[in-house]
């Protein structure tokens, strides 16, 4: 699994963005595991898997592994 930091979250649309040194990928509310989407916070470290589809790469199986840095 890959790791990255949540860059931004849009609760209304149910989409978030994960940033790493190499890339930025989006994820959907339905791809969050172990917590609900609304419990995620910007700056939080997560692990995820990459899936490539018609819209490009997206993150799936998104799980928090650390609390955000204050």
Structure description:
With 70 residues, the protein is mainly β. 0% of the residues lie in helices and 53% in strands. A hairpin with a 4-residue loop joins strand 1 and strand 2 (15-19). The N and C termini lie far apart (25 Å). The mean pLDDT is 91. The chain is globular, with a radius of gyration of 11 Å. A 5-stranded antiparallel β-sheet has the order 3-2-1-4-5, with no helix packed on it.
Portion in beta strands: over 45%
Described by strand count, sense and barrel closure, the largest sheet is: 5 strands, antiparallel
Radius of gyration: 11 Å
Fraction of helical residues: under 10%
Number of strands: 5
Topology, please?
Layout: E1 2-10, E2 15-19, E3 24-28, E4 45-53, E5 56-64
Antiparallel strand pairs: 1-2, 1-4, 2-3, 4-5
Sum up the structure in keywords.
70 residues, mainly beta, five-stranded antiparallel β-sheet, globular
Summarize the structure.
By secondary structure, this protein is mostly beta strands.
